[in-house]
Amino acid sequence: MNSRAFWRVYAGRYTLGLILISSVVTLVACGDSSVSDGGKPAGIVIMRSDCGGFEVEKRFGWVPTDKTCLRWDYNNERTLLLFHLNAGMNCCTHLVATVDFDDYKITIREDESGQYCFCQCLYDIEYSITDLPPARYTIVVEEKYLPEGDDSLSVTIDLAEKPSGQVCVDRTRSPWEPPEVGMNSLEGRLIVGVVEKNSRHNSAHESH
Question: Taking the model in full, what pTM does it have?
């Protein structure tokens, strides 16, 4: 099998999101309504896309496959929608994410659970944060497979001045690839070796 081989594996659309609010930890299924803790900000995972992502070009414009992006949209109901576009994940696992609030810093930590397989793909993940006052925040996404040496995905924004926008950073290794080499939107890339669950970096390599 050479490095251009693909393996069709479809990831489940509905996964579990783990919410961390102060000392309260709550499990919420994707698609459930937002929960709040006495008016304090609260976040949930709304949905993880199938392999290949949402049809984001119709909503935000096309995102190159060698980048990962964070899109935000804040409304008058004090709800912040966040979209992590081109998130690299295993094709067969379920997303587990924590949303942590520390004053004006919001940290999203993405992880996986379940059975791993020899496949990775790019996904889009939608989050919702409710009861969030308009202010200046730093949002950090701690990715499961951050390539060594690449910049982390983060942004500092004033929601009162810029309620919507997008920031992108480059990614330098599989499953991210230059657009001219990028994978078919419904196929995952075959890899060698099961990715270690507790590793933040992808130590697996493509077959040759």
Answer: 0.70
